[in-house]
Structure formats: C-alpha cells, structure tokens
Write a structure and sequence with these properties.
It is built from 5 helices and 7 strands. The protein has 201 residues and is of the alpha/beta class.
C-alpha cells in the first residue's frame, strides 16, 4: 500500500464529534513520546500531518485521518504522562474506553512500544485490553535505529515475552529517522482494509 492522499478529517473526545462509522479504521496507541506522530507522518508521507511535539502528553483528543479516501488512521492520545492530573487521566480513560468498545468500524489497534526498553506495565495493560476486545495482533517497536542489530533481536524477543504476544502476532521494528520498516506495516494495513471490504461484500 502507498498512502497518496491523507487529511485530518475530525478531532473529538466523544462519539458525536467522531466522523460517521462508514470507513475501516486502524488506530494507533502508545505511551507519550514513543514516536507515534513521527510514525504516522512516515506512513502517510507527510512531514506535518500529525504534529510532533517535544513535550509529551500534548495529544488529548482522538484524531481521525482520512487516507486515500478509503480508510482512516486514528491517532489515540498517548498514555503514561505523569503530569496529567487524576481527573485528566480518568477523563482520558473514559474517552478511550468509549472509542475502543463502541466503534464498530475499528478493525485493529497498532500498539507502539520503544524498542530500547522493556514494555511498561501500562503497555502490558493496554495490550491485554486490546486482546480482550480482539483488537490486538500488531505491535510496532519504534526507534529501531537507536540500537545495534544484535541488541534489536534481543529486545524484540523481550517485547514478545513481556506482552505475551501470540505466535501469529506481528511485531515490526520501525525507524522514522532512517525510514525503515514502515513498508511492512503498510502491507499489513492493506490486508486489514481489503479483508474488511471482502467481509462487507
């Protein structure tokens, strides 16, 4: 797949602000500062589609990007930002639950983890949550350019073990800096979209 066209379609925190559930959606989740915005810009070939911030915790809305007029990439707010107040964290949780549990056209959630570190307790909790709703199966290990090849393989094995990924679950190392690995993710996304179209027919 090549994403030739992409645009911000909607920004929201509650259902009535979301676009109509008329297109396949693939969402992206991860801790604040895991490199989600950089990855989305790499996938879409647009340097400033998703705003990259030096301050974690900036994205506190669900952002919907229409791609090729066919499907949506959904940018979920980053979790694990310590400076959010308790009430803000509770609001974030309710917003995420509403979207993940009730969005019928949501097919998969791509979980992003930093390849340099063992997945956090919140990463594990998020992946378990996605398993419960059948939205798991794809994990992207970001910032793969930051470590050596041998270390990369060790860390990928640790990520699989920590998240208790199934043998068929997909783990893709990606670097937005050297632009490697995202082609495989695009291929996986294409399969998801085409499979959804086949089901609809």
């Amino acid at each position: 797949m090549i994403i030739k066209k992409s645009e911000l379609e909607a920004i929201g925190t509650k259902t009535e602000q979301f676009p109509a559930p008329d297109k396949v959606e693939i969402a992206f989740a991860g801790r604040s500062n895991v490199g989600k915005s950089s990855l989305l810009n790499l996938l879409t070939g647009r340097r400033k589609l998703a705003r990259v911030s030096g301050s974690p915790g900036k994205t506190r809305t669900i952002n919907f990007y229409l791609c090729n007029d066919q499907f949506r990439i959904v940018d979920l707010p980053g979790y694990g930002y310590a400076r959010l107040s308790k009430s803000q964290q509770e609001s974030w949780g309710a917003m995420m639950e509403n979207y993940l549990e009730n969005r019928d056209n949501l097919r998969k959630v791509v979980l992003l983890v930093d390849i340099r570190h063992k997945p956090s307790a919140q990463d594990v909790q998020m992946y378990d949550y996605l398993k419960y709703y059948g939205l798991d199966g794809i994990v992207v290990a970001t910032k793969s350019d930051k470590i050596s090849g041998n270390e990369r393989q060790r860390n990928l094995a640790l990520i699989r073990k920590t998240l208790e990924m199934g043998k068929d679950d997909i783990l893709i190392p990606v670097s937005a800096l050297n632009r490697k690995g995202h082609e495989k993710l695009l291929d996986v996304m294409e399969e998801i979209v085409e499979s959804a179209w086949t089901e609809e027919k």
